[in-house]
Amino acid sequence: MDLTVCLIKETDGLLQVNPEAIEVLSKISQPVVVVSIVGLLRTGKSYLMNKLAGSQNGFAVG
């Protein structure tokens, strides 16, 4: 599956589960791995996530 989906989104200062993510996850019958990367601005987080996902454009860089 070549899909990147944000699980949590921020709306009006509150964190909420992304309904699109729930829909995607409910259709998966195999094990799922959740990866979270945190860090300072412009330190390569998006680059690393793209490398882990095997994609060049899944997560916006910059």
TrEMBL record:
Recorded superkingdom: Eukaryota
Database matches in PROSITE patterns: G_GB1_RHD3 (PS51715)
Keywords recorded for this protein, A-Z: GTP-binding, Nucleotide-binding
GO MF annotation, one: GTPase activity
Domain GB1/RHD3-type G: 29-62
A Pfam family per the record: GBP
UniProt xrefs under SUPFAM superfamilies: P-loop containing nucleoside triphosphate hydrolases
UniProt family annotation: Belongs to the TRAFAC class dynamin-like GTPase superfamily. GB1/RHD3 GTPase family.
Record protein name field: GB1/RHD3-type G domain-containing protein
Source organism phylogeny: Eukaryota, Metazoa, Chordata, Craniata, Vertebrata
